[in-house]
Design a protein that fits this description.
This protein is of the alpha/beta class and about 325 residues long. Helix content is about 45%, strand content about 15%.
């Protein structure tokens, strides 16, 4: 058999044997403030291949809370998980919106120096938050108001950054207290700090979720649908696959066997499996934003959130 005939015979045969080349995955950048329980569904979706199944390569980027809106608008981030700060921008008319939620209540403990045992002990103290107006800031302000304290007069709030930065500031003595992601409970106990309050018991505000620039909603709705669909699988996996989720939490959040289940239970208490946000939580957040900016008129939910993708996915279940 000459070479030409051999080539004509072998090439079709090889084409039937070799698997088709996979198209290059679309790179997506998701902004987080720090590693924490609040963004766990994204880590589950990443590790379980849910994003890969949608043709996506997710890259998580740690960016300070106060910079994430600008990063969304500049196209440096595709999605932000610090949705509280994004809502503050939305109510001011900046073109960003929430498109997904997954935790309806805070997953934060109010931690303080050992001598501080109750909320009233924080009068005149310095409290670290991620940024002024962020969800951690709003949580503590609400807790103060509910306990007869003035958040504007009775404490000084300092913008420090994510939970890891705030814990470092507390350890260094730069501040007296801070709200921390419950994933840090083990580190808190090692430092001997006081656990003043679980904020999820007294405050109803959402945590986590996705926000995007409205330009992305107009120009790349298909990508948003794929990201939400994959992340929603991560949300539901968290509840339905306990042992695997605990294993991921041990590795990703650096939790020991003695603490991981406790943190997992906090997550279940707050989890929203539908990918939306409880009305009471979002209403509270809008109310606080109106108070902050002294806005008298009502703010429609459609100004801060767009649920079309979540609803579309739900209709196909």
């Amino acid at each position: 058999m000459n070479r030409t005939l051999l080539y004509l015979f072998l090439v079709p045969a090889l084409l039937t044997v070799l698997p088709p080349r996979r198209a290059a995955a679309e790179i997506v950048h998701i902004g987080i403030s720090t590693v924490g329980l609040y963004e766990l569904p994204t880590e589950i979706a990443k590790r379980k291949g849910f994003y890969r199944d949608e043709g996506l390569e997710v890259r998580k980027v740690a960016i300070r809370t106060g910079l994430q809106v600008a990063a969304l608008l500049a196209g440096e981030l595709d999605y932000s998980t610090v949705t509280g700060s994004v809502l503050l921008a939305s109510v001011q008319g900046i073109p960003v919106k929430t498109v997904m939620g997954w935790f309806d209540r805070p997953l934060h403990l109010l931690i303080a120096r050992p001598q501080i045992k109750k909320l009233a002990d924080l009068r005149g103290k310095k409290i670290a938050v991620s940024s002024i107006g962020s969800i951690p800031h709003a949580m503590v302000r609400e807790a103060f108001a509910q306990n007869g304290l003035s958040p504007d007069k009775d404490a000084t709030f300092l913008a420090i950054g994510g939970s890891s930065d705030r814990l470092a500031a507390l350890a260094a003595g730069s501040v007296d207290a801070t709200p921390l992601d419950v994933a840090y409970v083990e580190k808190v106990e090692k430092f001997g700090f006081s656990n003043v309050l679980y904020l999820g018991d007294v405050v109803q505000l959402r945590l986590g979720g996705f926000a995007v620039a409205t330009e992305k909603i107009a120009k790349n709705p298909g990508q948003i649908a794929r990201v939400i669909r994959a992340t929603l699988k991560g949300v539901r996996f968290l509840k339905s696959h306990r042992e695997e989720t605990l294993a991921i939490m041990r590795d990703y959040l650096k939790l020991s066997d003695t603490h991981v289940d406790r943190v997992y239970q906090y997550a279940l208490l707050s989890l929203n499996e539908e990918g939306t946000v409880a009305k009471a939580s979002l209403d509270n957040e809008i109310r606080l934003a109106r108070e902050k900016f002294k806005i008298k008129e009502e703010i429609a939910e459609a100004k801060v959130a767009d649920w079309r993708f979540v609803k579309e996915i739900a209709s196909r279940r």
